[in-house]
Structures are given as structure tokens and as C-alpha cells.
Specification:
The complex is a heterotrimer of chains A (about 260), B (about 550) and C (about 55). Chain A is mostly helical and about 260 residues long. Chain A contains 12 helices and no strands. In chain A, helix 3 (about 65-80) packs across helix 11. The radius of gyration of chain A is 25 Å and the shape is globular. Helices cover about 70% and strands about 0% of the residues of chain C. Chain C has helices spanning about 5-30, 35-45. Classes of the chains: A mainly alpha (about 260), B mainly alpha (about 550), C mainly alpha (about 55). Chains in contact: A-B, A-C, B-C. Chains A and B meet through helix 2, helix 3, helix 4 and helix 7 of A and helix 3, helix 4, helix 6, helix 7 and strand 1 of B.
Chain lengths: ~260, ~550, ~55
């Protein structure tokens, strides 16, 4: 049994040892050369960015995504919103005038993965949070052309009728902690409950959200439905926090016209 | 095909398909209620079907001829057919995606059919499905020919080809269910990524073992490009896809990197996917099929070596030009810009080398649409690498970035260069593989050529106009110093270009369908030498002018 | 030695360009080394007649 399993490999070694040793050496040297030439450059260019922690702008007040917002972020990814909306305001004047203070590295330090995007078929969303009301966001997502006739955005009315799956949230937060987001044990353990509480401010689970994520957390019925927690709740909660995890950018770059 | 394997090989293949089917079953059970479970069933069904196909032919007689005196072309043939299937599927998807931007109601209200979900089906379908299959199939052909040796193994080529297509199927079906990592051109989730690593290792071993069998002292340069494609894509794929799954029973995972580091890793990957997936491998194709078809050796072999190493080590630095004016440190942006501009040297060396090869054979280019495909591909390669270096310059990028100019640039490369060199190579390769003298219809090749060229030009011009218009509108100020146009103002201006783009894409797609039809008819045709007519005919289909007696 | 951001980024910027130049020169020397010319010519021509089947 063992011999048969190793059979094919035996032939491989035999053939190494015998006639074609030289030829094999050439092709492996070529392969090694390619690997070396290609990886040195990438390594040298990218490695410094991993030592950047000590120089990146410090944002001590920065809060984490709540479980509901993280669930919304996952829906944003699932629906491919990043294909048409960037979340990166460049340092160009017209970018800043149109979308607000330019994005700082610190603002996406908990974004696994980042959603900076590469194309603006729709506008940048890095600071869209609280720019529109929850009601506007819900109605716009459900039927974009009812509010913006020129829009080419797909409609997402089905999010209003899809209950949000919260069971997997503790696992998701734990995975995020594994890659470096400082969620506490209590935040992970109560993730499902906190997701519910954030969108149901009248329920008894709402208080815990404020305890764990701070008094500033948005506690609202995002989708306008009291009867259940939907994916629309999560997505709107996420959109409304975009640019709002820290006010570092607003503090360091006062908008033109102000002051 | 199965009959050309020995019984022992058939058994090995059956064992492998059982193992894969079991893995699929495990995924279906562990991932029930999640898209991962659906993927499990897909794997189970496909591997099961393969198992029964093998089992039903298990006791057919073994091959009697000496296999060592011929090349092993069965996997290449299947690979070419899969390339065409993915071409039609991926480009058809592209036309739909483009049409949705012009007429958003073409989305038809299903959750799975929104732009965000089907766009990666288009991009992965054409890059990995069409491009990847073309690269694998042609590499199988070229590695044997240039080494004058039969492929090393009869199972591993099938494992590579079918395993890669399984990856593509999991990727495409996943996007429709919303399974994505959101990393552009690396969207598939962790289990698909792991599977691709296994397939890729087998591919590398197969390539090296075949090269080791070679009966030529020198490794022909086309193989260098294919090797660079295999090796560097492996490195890029593994690093960029490092992630922690939220659960081993579900598809969702979170990238190991965040923010700035993730952006840099992603675009290091993204740009080098262009370099090593969409350029290096296809240059390998060019360096083999163009001299072959023109019946002239490459103009300068030395230049091809120079440009090979240039591409290998310049490209890897260039990714950060996707991040100009962002939160990435400025020196990284500058480094990316410098190397992107330097890249023009090896890129134009390759394009020029290809065109100089045709010097003295221009009459062939005029008459032979297949060679014209390759010639125009080299021209587009030169144009889009120039455009790319230009767009990597920071001030230019400030205008072009986030607009359709980028989309136009990518498609100039993808349609004009990648797809045209692939179709040219397929038209050169199909008659060789199936032992025909020519393609079924040279007129259809001409039709395909002009549709593809016309479609590309329409597409690219539409996107240039749209992108530059939008970029300029975004930065236009009124006299009082406020922005002159709202975002929706620009959308109104885009609309006619989006329609033109959909038309250009549709032309290109129709060309691909014609090409697929032509290849199928070539395979089914009896071969011209066999057509001994014993009746008079005026028709091309060789039907008798006078019907046979009733 | 501390692997600080200043040090690694300065290294990337200086070494990156040296690397670029040294490799460019090395490759140019290899590609244009006179005695390799014959081998390259042979390789370039070798693909024009390779359809007969594997060498035995």
C-alpha cells in the first residue's frame, strides 16, 4: 500500500538522479531567479508599511465598528458596493471640497479589508455618515431613481425584507480580533444581542450597546421597521458611521470656509 | 480521451475524483445553510460526474501505440474549448454589466443580478476563465514543442486544467451568492484560494518536470514568461489572500491586513496580476505563436531576454501608482510612479520586437487575419503600456483615477492585447492540434478580426471621452470658487458613452461567438485533404450541384 | 538594530533605485554577451520546426 502510494514519487526522484540532472538544474535556477527578482522588490517596498504603527497619526478616541455596523459592512462587501463607490478622499482640492477632509491612514486601521475602491461610478462614501437621514438612505437604497432620477445604482429593496443573521456575529468579531481589531471578550460574547439592541432602542438590550461601545453610538431604528431586525438596519447603520469612527480628520484639517 | 490513459492512470484519476468529491461532501455538510454548502454540492456533483465518466470507461482497452513518440495534446484540446466557453460566458456577462450602467433596469430585480455581484463574474470570467484557460492550454502546447519532449505525466495536466476550472466555477457561482473578499481580482474566499494553491503547485511541478525532459540545450524564452507567470502569481495569490475565516463552516473571512497595509498589498497584487497573469503569460504566447505563424524567427532574441527581466523586476514595484494622493506615504507613491515609467522600456522592447519580426512578412499580415490578430495585439500592447506609464504619473493620475479612463485603459489592454493575442494563437493552434489544414472558414476569422478591432476601438474611445469628461467636470470650479458640477451632473454626461461602450462590448462579444463557432466547425470538419469530390459543385459546402438520384 | 519606519523606508527608497540600476546593467550584459549570440540564434530558430513529435 505504502509502496504504491509512493510509486509516482519514486520515479520522480530516480529521474532527478539520472540523465536530466543538468537540464533540471537550469530550469530550477531560472525559477529561482524569477522568484528572487520579483519578490525582493515587493518585499522592500511593502515591508516599511508594516513598521508604520509608530508614525501613523494617533487617534486615541477612535472607536470600533459595533456588531451591527460590522454586519452592515459585510453586506456592503457582499453586494459589491466597493465596485462603484470609493472610500478614500484624496489630498486634491476638489476631492476635499466635494467630500470633506482628506482620508487619513488611521481612519481605516480597523478595516479588514480596506474598501478604498478604485472607481467612482457613484460618489465617494468615506464621509457619507450622517450626511443624509436614515429615512433618505432607506428610501434611496430601496429605489435610487425615485430620489435621484439620473442614478444608475441598482435597487436594494430586498434588504428591507431580509432578516439580519446575527448568530455568526461572535465568530466574525473573534476573527477580526485575530487579525488585530481590539474587540473585548464581552463585546464578542454579546455581539448578537448588541446588534439587535442597536437597532431596537426601546428593547432591554439597547443599554449594553452603550456600555460596550460608548455613549456616542447611534441607537436608532435605522430601517423604520419596529417589528424586526433587517439587513437594511445593518447597512444603514454602517453607512451612517462612515467617517465617524474618529473626528481626527476634522480636528486636524478645518474645512475651507470655516474658521 | 480516457481511452488514451492506461488502466492504472484511470484508477489514479478515479481515486483523485473520489477524494475531491469527499471534500465537496464535507463542505456541503459543514457549510449547510451557508453558500459554502452550495459550493460543497457543486464540487461533489462535478467530481462525482468525473468519477462515473472514468468508471464507465475503466475497462476499455489500453492504448497500444507507443505514447512516447507523440506529444500529449488531449488536455490542450480541452483547454482550448474551455477557453472559448469562458470567453462567451465572461464576455456575455461583460455586455450585460455594461448595459446595466446604461439602463439600470436591466438588472431585473433579483438579488444576484445587481451590478456589484455580476461585475466580478465578468472580470473573473474573462481574466481567469478565458485568460487562465488560454494560458494553461497554450503552455501545455508550448512546453512540449519547445522542449521536444512529451509532457511529464498524464494525470497532472488534467488535474491542473480541471482543478483550475473548478476554482473558476466556485468563484463565479460564489459572486452570485454574495461570496467575495472584496479584493479586486482576488475575490474568491478562503477555501477556493487554498484549492488554487494546490492546483498551482501541481502546475509548477508539471512545468519544471517537462522542461527537465527537454531535448534542447536552451530553454526557449516563451517558457521563461510562462514560468514567471506561474511562480509570481503563486506568491501574489498567497500573500494577498492571507485571511482568517470567521468560521470553518462558512465562506466569510477577514483579510489579515487592514487600511494602508491592505491597500498596498492589494494593489501590489492587483497590478502584478496585470503584469504576470495578463502580460507575462501572454507574451509567452506571443513569442511562440507570432514567429511560428510568420515563419520567421523572433527579430531579436536578446531583446526578448532583456525585456523579460525588465518586466519581472520593474513591474513588482509599480502597484502603488493605484494609490496616488491617498493615505499611503508619498515616497511609496513616488517609487511606484518611477518604476511605472521605467516599465515602458521593457514593454516597448517587447512590442517592437514583435513588430520587427513581421518586417518582411507584411504581405502575410495583409492576407492572414490570424497573423493580423497577433500584429494588432502587439500594437495594442505597446499603446496600452504607454498609456499605463502615462497614467501612473501623479498629475495625470489625479485626473484619470476613479474615472472611466481607467476602465478604458484596462480594456485597451484586455481586449486589444490579451484577447486578440489569445484569439490569434487559438486560430494558429486549432488546425495544428486537430490535424486540419486550415480553419473551417477564413472569412469568419476575418469577421471576428474586424468585429474585435472595431469593438475595442469603440469601447476605448467611449471610455476615454467619458473618463476625461468626468475627471474634468469633477475639478471644474465656478468663478466664485465653488464646484461647478454635482456628481449627478456628470452622470447625465456619461449616459451616451455608456451606451457606446455597451455597443463596443457587444461587437467584441459577437466576434468571440463567431470565433467559438468557427473552432467547433473546424473540429467537426472532415479535413480538406479528405474531401475527394466525385461530383461537380459550385458551392463552398461541397454540396453536389445536381442532387444525387432519388 | 531597530527596524524603524524611518530606516526601512529610507532603505527602500535608496536600495530600490540601486537595485533597479544594477539589475538593468546585469541583464543588459547577459543579453548582449557576444559568445552567447550563437546559442540565442539557434534557440530563436528552433521553434520554427518542432511539430514532428518528441526527440527520441
Amino acid at each position: 500500500m505504502f509502496r504504491t502510494l509512493l510509486g509516482p514519487f519514486a520515479r520522480f526522484f530516480e529521474f532527478h538522479a539520472k540523465t536530466h540532472y543538468r537540464a533540471e538544474r537550469h530550469s530550477m535556477a531560472l525559477a529561482g531567479g524569477i522568484l528572487l527578482a520579483a519578490s525582493i522588490g515587493g518585499f522592500i517596498e511593502i515591508a516599511p508599511l508594516f513598521t508604520i504603527d509608530d508614525t501613523v497619526e494617533a487617534a486615541p478616541d477612535m472607536r470600533l465598528y459595533t456588531p451591527l455596523e460590522q454586519a452592515g459592512r459585510d453586506i456592503y462587501i457582499r453586494e459589491g458596493c466597493y465596485a462603484c463607490h470609493s472610500q478614500m478622499i484624496r489630498t486634491l482640492q476638489d476631492d476635499v471640497d466635494r467630500y470633506g477632509p482628506y482620508s487619513l491612514a488611521a481612519e481605516s486601521k480597523y478595516d479588514h479589508p480596506m474598501l478604498w475602491g478604485s472607481k467612482r461610478t457613484g460618489p465617494d462614501l468615506a464621509r457619507v455618515g450622517e450626511k443624509y437621514s436614515d429615512d433618505w438612505q432607506v428610501r434611496h437604497l430601496a429605489d435610487p431613481r425615485a430620489l435621484v432620477p439620473e442614478s444608475v445604482m441598482p435597487q436594494y429593496a430586498f434588504l428591507l425584507d431580509t432578516p439580519l443573521e446575527t448568530e455568526s456575529l461572535p465568530g466574525r468579531l473573534a476573527a477580526l480580533r485575530a487579525v488585530g481589531v481590539p474587540y473585548s471578550d464581552a463585546q464578542i460574547a454579546n455581539a448578537a444581542s448588541d446588534a439587535f439592541g442597536q437597532a431596537m432602542p426601546d428593547s432591554d438590550r439597547a443599554g449594553g450597546v452603550l456600555d460596550r461601545y460608548g455613549e456616542e453610538t447611534n441607537l436608532r431604528i435605522f430601517d423604520g421597521r419596529r417589528d424586526r431586525l433587517t439587513e437594511m438596519d445593518a447597512l444603514v447603520a454602517y453607512l451612517q458611521i462612515l467617517g465617524g469612527l474618529t473626528d481626527l480628520a476634522a480636528r486636524t484639517q478645518p474645512a475651507r470656509g470655516e474658521n | 480521451m480516457i481511452k488514451r490513459l492506461t488502466i492504472a492512470e484511470r484508477q489514479t484519476a478515479m481515486l483523485l475524483s473520489v477524494l475531491i468529491a469527499l471534500a465537496g461532501f464535507a463542505m456541503a455538510v459543514i457549510g449547510r445553510g451557508d453558500p459554502m454548502g452550495v459550493h460543497g454540492w457543486i464540487v461533489l456533483i462535478l467530481a462525482g460526474a468525473l468519477f462515473f465518466a472514468l468508471a464507465s470507461a475503466l475497462y476499455e482497452p489500453e492504448p497500444t501505440e507507443d505514447r512516447a513518440v507523440s506529444y500529449y495534446d488531449d488536455p490542450t484540446k480541452v483547454g482550448i474549448l474551455l477557453t472559448l466557453v469562458w470567453a462567451v460566458a465572461g464576455m456575455g456577462m461583460g455586455v450585460w454589466v455594461a448595459a446595466q450602467l446604461a439602463w439600470p433596469d436591466l438588472r431585473f430585480d433579483a438579488a444576484w443580478s445587481s451590478f456589484g455581484r455580476i461585475r466580478p463574474v465578468h472580470t473573473s470570467g474573462v481574466i481567469f476563465g478565458f485568460g487562465g484557460n488560454a494560458l494553461i492550454a497554450t503552455s501545455f502546447h508550448i512546453m512540449q514543442r519547445t522542449s521536444r519532449a512529451r509532457m511529464a505525466g498524464h494525470i497532472s495536466p488534467w488535474f491542473v486544467l480541471l482543478g483550475f476550472n473548478l476554482f473558476c466555477i466556485i468563484a463565479a457561482t460564489g459572486y452570485l451568492m454574495g461570496v467575495t473578499q472584496s479584493k479586486e481580482y482576488a475575490e474568491p474566499e478562503w477555501y477556493a484560494d487554498i484549492w488554487l494553491v494546490i492546483v498551482w503547485i501541481v502546475y509548477f511541478v508539471l512545468y519544471i518536470r517537462t522542461l527537465a525532459r527537454r531535448n534542447e540545450p536552451h530553454i526557449y524564452v516563451a517558457n521563461w514568461y510562462y514560468l514567471a507567470f506561474i511562480l509570481v502569481v503563486a506568491v501574489l495569490h498567497i500573500v494577498n489572500n492571507l485571511a482568517v475565516p470567521a468560521s470553518f463552516g462558512a465562506a466569510k473571512s477577514y483579510s489579515a491586513f487592514s487600511g494602508v497595509q491592505d491597500a498596498m498589498t492589494q494593489w501590489w497584487y492587483g497590478h502584478n496580476a496585470v503584469a504576470f497573469f495578463l502580460t507575462a503569460g501572454f507574451l509567452g504566447m506571443l513569442y511562440y505563436f507570432l514567429p511560428k505563424r510568420a515563419e520567421r524567427p523572433i527579430y531579436s532574441y536578446r531583446l526578448s531576454i532583456l525585456s523579460f527581466w525588465g518586466i519581472t523586476f520593474f513591474y513588482i514595484w509599480a502597484g502603488s501608482h493605484h494609490l496616488h494622493y491617498t493615505a499611503v506615504p508619498e515616497w511609496v507613491q513616488t517609487l511606484g510612479m518611477t518604476f511605472s515609467v521605467m516599465l515602458l522600456v521593457p514593454s516597448w522592447a517587447s512590442a517592437g520586437n514583435a513588430l520587427m519580426t513581421l518586417n518582411g512578412a507584411w504581405h502575410k499580415v495583409r492576407d492572414d487575419a490570424t497573423l493580423r490578430f497577433m500584429m494588432v495585439a502587439a500594437v495594442f500592447y505597446g499603446l496600452s503600456t504607454f498609456e499605463g506609464s502615462f497614467m501612473a504619473i501623479r498629475p495625470v493620475n489625479s485626473l484619470s483615477h476613479y474615472t472611466d479612463w481607467t476602465v478604458g485603459h484596462v480594456h485597451a489592454g484586455a481586449m486589444g492585447w490579451v484577447a486578440l493575442i489569445t484569439f490569434g494563437s487559438i486560430y494558429a493552434l486549432v488546425p495544428v492540434l486537430w490535424r486540419k489544414q486550415t480553419m473551417y472558414s477564413w472569412k469568419l476569422v476575418e469577421w471576428h478580426f474586424w468585429l474585435a478591432l472595431g469593438g475595442t476601438v469603440v469601447y476605448v474611445f467611449a471610455m476615454w471621452n467619458s473618463g476625461i469628461t468626468q475627471g474634468l467636470m469633477w475639478r471644474t470650479y465656478t468663478e466664485s470658487g465653488t464646484l461647478a458640477y454635482s456628481f449627478t451632473d456628470t452622470l447625465v454626461k456619461m449616459h451616451p458613452y455608456y451606451i457606446a461602450r455597451a455597443i463596443g462590448g457587444a461587437m467584441f462579444f459577437v466576434g468571440a461567438v463567431i470565433g467559438a463557432f468557427n473552432v467547433v466547425m473546424t473540429i467537426r470538419s472532415v479535413g480538406h485533404q479528405a474531401q475527394q469530390l466525385d461530383y461537380p459543385t459550385g458551392s463552398e459546402a461541397n454540396e453536389p450541384a445536381v442532387p444525387a438520384a432519388e | 538594530m531597530e527596524l524603524s519606519y524611518e530606516w526601512t523606508s529610507a532603505f527602500a527608497q535608496s536600495f530600490g533605485l540601486i537595485y533597479l540600476m544594477v539589475l538593468s546593467v546585469a541583464i543588459a550584459v547577459y543579453a548582449f554577451w557576444p559568445s552567447l549570440g550563437k546559442r540565442f540564434d539557434k534557440a530563436a530558430k528552433s521553434i520554427l520546426n518542432d511539430e514532428d513529435g518528441p526527440c527520441r
